[in-house]
Amino acid sequence: MKKIITILTSLLLLFSFTVSADKLSDFDYSTLPDADYYFYAYDETNTLRESSKKFIIDHSNELYEKTGVQIVVAVVNDLNGMTIENYSTRLFEKWEIGDKNDQGLLIVVKPKTATEKGQVRIEVGYGLMKVIPAQRADQIIRNVMIPRFKEENMEAGIMDGYEITLGLVADYLGVEIEGIDAFDNFGDEREGRISPLMGLIIFIIFMMLIRGGGRGGLNTLFWLSNMSGSGRSGGFGGGFSGGGGFGGGGGRSGGGGSSGSW
Question: Transmembrane stretches, by residue range (predicted)?
Answer without folding.
Answer: 194-210
